[in-house]
Q: What sequence folds into this?
């Protein structure tokens, strides 16, 4: 994630949102939630702008990585291999149809808690430190795309994702689409970009164990002067209990809870929502706030010369 | 699940625990939680005794079913095919090393909510009816086995399960073992049977969305005269927030919450607990109640002529 | 409370909201929450219209009743004594400056749970039945008044209430005022009536033990087709976690949670909110829904010949 | 509260339990919860031992203070006036029949939040800082007494307290007694001291808004190496959701939640529990841990020359 207010964004993610720093280099700090098993789940990078540099997936095995790379190369959208990063080994880069950069890797750096951060119970990655909103783990990212239908076909072919839910607009376009490669309802989602600007970022989400943690987070955001965009409330789609804020540089960040809902059905049929259904608002009747359909990062006014990807 | 107090057990599961009846035949009622996608997740059967008749898994595909059947037949523990049941199609039966009967099937009956039970939001299986403890879905079963180490080898080979956690006793035996075939921490667990009696049942667990639902369930059990064995508290192993009761016929039933904890690491290493660690008690210090190590169904005194499996 | 859809309203209050019927006569059903200690806390009455017939307070002693009656008679707004009701003894009636009828009484009928409703733990009034939203107890009522400033002076003098919070509009009028006679933040509140119609009702509120109960209630209302007006969210004023619905006849009903907040300071100074502060919306930024300022019962179109009070 | 491990106790109360320091002098730090309206609610004092120096009540008015002092002087147990403390004005001291020192005062120092601690919403005392367990406010203290029946008579006469619940042992003695001067179920409780040693302290309790906060506190205590004695569970008596720990010097500290339960009945009859009822354990069946009946501070072995009161 890029930020043009690096120190403020870092303070937000560590002291208010409750992630932990596991490493840093010249331009980036590597962050993780207390039960993320990898070295990092969010790389915050000093930049002239905001938005997302890339999204990375760890594959389920070395063989799975090879299969994915072969599929993506056959699709003609590969970029090539990088040597990896502080938190993982060699990664294969590619672009989605909207220009967002992705990485796939198998070799990872498993988090080893430093002294004072070891958990009291050894089956979680790090102690529950209780600082800030303190979510448990990375859950998903949400990206904007000019053509969500193209994304739908792409993700299924490139990553083998399942499409769990989607919004079918009256004009035949997809307003949004939710994908998963595991038993969660989604690990990535896309929403339609209305401005024609490619490569933008909608939000990143970490999850808490309980909805009460989301309500508590609302008080923490409020008391720390963080802009709350909307929530807490429950989405109709995926039934996620949500709360959206803008971190100091303007990137949208969610803290959420999914309860015990999982996609345990192997032949789960995609749930298709109509435009009329979407207009009903969220699960308990909250009208979707207008900015949720328009705010993305980087902002459009700065996006003239924007090229998605790590080149900041 | 067998019960020798059929009407009382049924009242418990429907009105107190909060499952819904989706069908019945001469000897059994088919029950499900509100977001179980299949016709049923618990078949309650009138019997002379208690315990479990069989445990069934739906495979991830028809091909997966064929692979598992081939593996199990090669292991020499298969029983053969049945025509299925009210809730699913043809099933392949086999026995674990302790004599418990299992089934595997692919063809299932997806639950279609009758009038009045359709959910307000169409991405869950049935409306949240709010009756009784009202858990969301089946989570796991726990069986007793004389030789848990034999089970550990068996489940990995027969079902392709991963071993997420285990208890290694000082005498070299396994005191317990937790298995999963998906991203949950476990879908089945085994605990050591100290009496030498094979085929016994420890408990079945449905999960709630929130820990508060478990606390609320405690009041519901209390007010309905249901015996609470232990909890609510948090297990150290798997960190599940648990509450155990005995349904009227004596089968142990749990209602639990796992928060946002999932096994998302594909190369998750088995967590091994020592006997000393187990003696420390549960996560927040509660000593494990003695009956948790001894109570199983059917009771030993009735188990003389017991043969596990559906022959009741 | 009056309803012109008596059966539907009663179904709502018993099966969805979770009150219990403790008695009935020709036109009314007497309802109570599980831990209300009195025979009833809500009298639902068949009527041609909606709104509130009267609001009743039990005094803290017989002597206190006498003192209040003397004070009210001196103020010239008394109506006189009634013989009481199924749930309480003789009551003294009076009108607030907006015409709402009030009663004061000391002798009450303490609820004696019938067979099957006795609590498992004897220090609460009735068992936790868990039906519907199942709030614990009556918390407060909220009335509309054309002149809230007149109400402010009145309640302090007539009931000895403390004013805990208020909204001071830029035009010098009071937009709302919150009163208490005990350690709760408020037992009655008034909001400004913009139509000039006196005697209208804004809402009645029962409270739950936990915020999770309010979130759960939202699902119960949703699944039962009850109109959710706004929430769940947290009020800035009084910091109550709220959820407002319309019962089938249109009366607004709230279910709420106040956490551990109490007014324990004997010299609590009134918190005064400006119009600008109110415009900021609720605690976490939710904009106050327009209907919250306009919807009251009975509706204005039916209110032409309306006389507040029990004459329905 | 006295501590012979001052720095460790202070670290516990500030960083783990989540109180805030509002002042200090040579031997004491003044602490408060975020919504306590007074300067302090806990004075932690460096000492050779542990236990409680005195318990202080603010009266409801200056006149009430005068009435209480007159009553206490008439009872012959008064000590006399002190000039007050950093947090309040002149205080009248007296002893309960077990020798514990009490103070009564009217003039207080209302907390004024320093820069950075002002709440986002102005109707609470300090911002919700979210540090540690972060309870909302002081709730009650619990003292040990050799003769609880003498205490029962004393508190009613000296403070005008109401007796809300009590334990009547088979031998005719009182095992415990709960008192209140407001709408809470209790502000002070006494349990029988079995050793004959007078003046000991059982625990102090702050409350959270939600039970989830208590569960979360359990994780925080666990991760910080704080000894958890028992809980979380629900007491049968008062139905408080409790969690007891020992602060580093050994004083027992509770964090609790009472839900929406209040004593709103002015003629509340004392609930009397028999010894048999107490033996049933806590609300959901947890057996009361033995140390709960024996552990008090200061420990008995150090108590030989102990004189209760501030002389440390």
A:
């Amino acid at each position: 994630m890029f930020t043009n207010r690096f120190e403020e964004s870092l303070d937000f993610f560590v002291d208010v949102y409750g992630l932990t720093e596991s490493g840093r280099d010249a331009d980036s700090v590597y962050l993780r939630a207390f039960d993320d098993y990898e070295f990092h789940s969010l790389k915050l990078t000093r930049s002239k702008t905001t938005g997302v540099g890339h999204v990375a997936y760890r594959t389920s095995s070395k063989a799975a990585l090879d299969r994915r790379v072969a599929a993506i190369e056959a699709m003609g959208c590969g970029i090539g291999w990088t040597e990896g990063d502080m938190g993982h080994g060699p990664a294969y880069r590619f672009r989605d149809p909207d220009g967002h950069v992705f990485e796939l890797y198998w070799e990872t750096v498993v988090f080893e808690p430093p002294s004072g951060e070891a958990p009291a119970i050894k089956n979680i990655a790090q102690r529950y430190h209780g600082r800030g909103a303190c979510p448990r783990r990375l859950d998903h990212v949400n990206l904007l795309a000019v053509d969500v239908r193209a994304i739908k076909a792409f993700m299924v072919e490139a990553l083998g994702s399942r499409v769990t839910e989607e919004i079918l607009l009256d004009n035949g376009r997809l307003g949004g689409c939710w994908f998963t490669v595991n038993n969660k309802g989604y690990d990535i989602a896309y929403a339609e970009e209305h401005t024609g600007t490619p490569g933008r970022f909608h939000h990143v989400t970490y999850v808490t164990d309980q909805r009460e943690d989301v309500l508590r987070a609302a008080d923490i955001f409020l008391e720390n002067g963080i802009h709350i965009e909307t929530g807490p409330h429950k989405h109709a789609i995926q039934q996620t209990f949500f709360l959206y804020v803008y971190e100091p540089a303007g990137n949208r960040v969610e803290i959420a809870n999914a309860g015990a809902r999982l996609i345990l059905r192997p032949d789960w049929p995609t749930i298709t929502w109509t435009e009329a259904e979407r207009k009903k608002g969220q699960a308990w009747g909250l009208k979707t706030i207008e900015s949720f359909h328009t705010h993305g990062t980087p902002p459009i006014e700065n996006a003239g010369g924007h090229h998605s990807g790590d080149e900041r």
In short: Chain A has a mean pLDDT of 95.
